[in-house]
Write a structure and sequence with these properties.
- With 417 residues, the chain is mainly alpha-helical.
- The protein has three domains: 101 residues, no CATH class; 128 residues, no CATH class; 149 residues, no CATH class.
- The strands form three sheets. A two-stranded antiparallel ribbon has the order 1-2. It has a two-stranded antiparallel ribbon with strand order 3-4. Strands 5-6 form a two-stranded antiparallel sheet.
- It is globular and about 70 Å long.
- This is DUF1615 domain-containing protein.
- It holds the Pfam family DUF1615.
């Protein structure tokens, strides 16, 4: 038999495994971005009908009740026609398919019931511009080279002979091109997703063992998490017909915008500055609030801990048994806080939800920290996180991202007059 006979099964299983190892990783985000359904999903400037229940494992999504936007946000247009006209005035001129962008952005605002304000429209516009420069399927420069580099490294770590990998790469894929040619020509995460799905489907048809999960975790014009999109769709109705899957919707302009706007704006936070929403978009919902809480702990305990917005350690999206630095620091303050270890951990379990700032732990930490200083501490702080991804070639941080987006946001607001 020819070597191609043996190489074909290898190409399906091993190549898919290697491709999974080399996928472009999303910017590090907190587990709220899709590893669990977004329980605290409510619109900006809205409140829920009930207090957060004490046991987060049995939480069901609260029904959002519209109220007036917070004071930092100007009143929005109630009329859809006026709202759409405002959006059209705010978006940059000269972007390709501008009318389609306006339609899909406004449709997302309608479906998510977000007020039609210049601030909210500009917040969405700024993130889109930062993440994709108004490309529905953004190009990742040098994606093929990144994939090759990591395939080679992964093959070496698993002791897979490089000639065998190279032989597998030369076999034809379904579109007539070799896998090598497909990888060489990769430009976007959507294309990489299609290639991986093709290989896993072929493996399934052949009855070959392949347990590798799809490595493509983000996509679309706002680089939204696929896991977040799936979680959000479980608690809030997706407004469009689903073609194939929610995952595929993320890679479309309408789906990518809908879920990106949802993760940015479709939850209630106490911030009076959009800068902190931009940081949350990068680091995970409520990260800026939680980083401020960590800063208060540092002030009280004189113990250095990272201000990263993660109060607990996580494994597989769930709290780890290994105590975080924040938890260890809080335990040292248990006597001052008048809280037991069980009560502290109960409240910390709500760190990714809107109700955390109503817990006894949060309130008592800030009461003590405010009393120890000459002025109330900030309730929002930019998380200090270094960004790691094969797509990132410079030393970047969450603060860099947030301030970069905030500059674009300010430019957009100037167009509103």
């Amino acid at each position: 038999m020819s070597s191609a006979f043996f190489a074909r099964p290898f190409s399906v299983v091993a190549l898919a495994s290697l491709l999974a190892a080399c996928a472009t990783q999303p910017i590090a985000r907190a587990p709220d971005n899709g590893l669990t359904p977004p329980i605290a999903t409510v619109e900006p400037g809205m409140q829920t009908t009930a207090e957060p229940p004490p046991n987060p494992t049995t939480t069901t999504p609260a029904i959002p009740v519209p109220v007036k936007p917070p004071p930092a946000i100007t009143p929005g247009w109630a009329d859809a026609r006026q709202g759409r006209a405002l959006l059209a005035r705010l978006l940059p001129t000269g972007i390709p398919e501008r009318a389609a962008w306006i339609h899909d952005i406004f449709s997302a605002f309608e479906a998510l019931k977000i007020p039609y304000t210049a601030e909210y429209f500009c917040a969405a516009s700024a993130v889109i511009e930062q993440e994709s420069s108004w490309q529905a399927d953004p190009v990742v420069p040098g994606l093929g080279k990144m994939v090759w580099g990591q395939i080679a490294a992964k093959a070496k770590s698993h002791g897979v002979p490089l000639p065998l990998v190279q032989a597998a790469m030369l076999l034809k894929s379904r579109d007539g091109r070799s896998y090598k040619a497909r990888i060489d020509g990769l430009r976007t995460e959507r294309e990489m997703n299609v290639l991986f799905e093709e290989m896993t489907d072929e493996a399934s048809r052949r009855g070959l063992p392949l347990t590798v999960q799809n490595p493509i975790r983000t996509g679309g014009p706002m680089q939204v998490s696929v896991e977040f999109a799936n979680g959000h769709a479980r608690v809030w109705p997706y407004p469009y017909p689903v073609k194939d899957s929610i995952r595929h919707e993320v890679f479309s302009r309408r789906g990518g915008l809908y879920f990106g706007i949802a993760i940015l704006l479709h939850y209630r936070v106490p911030y009076d500055n959009m800068l902190y929403r931009f940081a949350d978009f990068n680091a995970g919902r409520f990260s800026s609030r939680n980083a401020a809480f960590q800063a208060a702990i540092v002030k009280l305990g004189k113990r250095k801990i990272p201000l990263d917005g993660d109060l607990l350690r996580y494994e597989g999206g769930r709290p780890s048994k290994q105590a975080s630095g924040s938890l260890l620091a809080i335990r040292k303050l248990a006597g001052q806080l008048r809280l037991s270890s069980a009560e502290i951990e109960r409240d910390l379990a709500l760190e990714k939800e809107g109700g955390f700032d109503q817990t006894p732990l949060y309130r008592r930490v800030f009461e003590l920290a405010d009393a120890a200083g000459h002025a109330p501490l900030a309730r929002a702080v930019l998380p200090q996180i270094k960004l790691n991804s094969p797509k990132i070639t410079r030393k970047l941080t969450t603060e860099w991202f947030a301030r970069r987006v905030d500059g674009r946001y300010a430019s957009c607001l100037r167009r509103a007059g």
